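User: Okay, second chain of the day. Same drill as before: sequence in, structure tokens out.
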Amino acid sequence: MAKPTGAIVIIWRDLAQEGYTYAEIARKFPEFTVNQIRHYCLGNTGAKLPGPIQKSGRWRGRNVWLQGEKSPHAGITKEHALRVLEDWDSDRGRWKHSAAYWAQELEVSPSAIQQLRRGDTWKHLDHPNQRSNREAGSD
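Assistant: Same drill. Structure tokens below.
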């Protein structure tokens, strides 16, 4: 694993300060891992190098560089997630289509759809229809 120069670490820290995620920075520097970049940006490694050191809680405990489509575990896209969440019928107080319908349509498990609807996954979307089924008590 290559060790970055001080100049590269400064660039990483500046990018992180501007709001880039570590995954986004890693895509610009493919010869380095996301973990390397995170360690240098947090000052766990290379603490004496110049550049702004990130606070460990800058993402409020969330792993934002792996949210949504960026996650290696994501089975759907943001567009798909929004389509599912827009499927709420507010007049009837329930989902227009079942989780099984969307699971078959998007080739994921019904539990993946239920987790999306409950807001257990894709929380960062902060969509108003997440948790609707929890409030209504049905899915």
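The mean pLDDT is 82.

User: Thanks, on to the next one.
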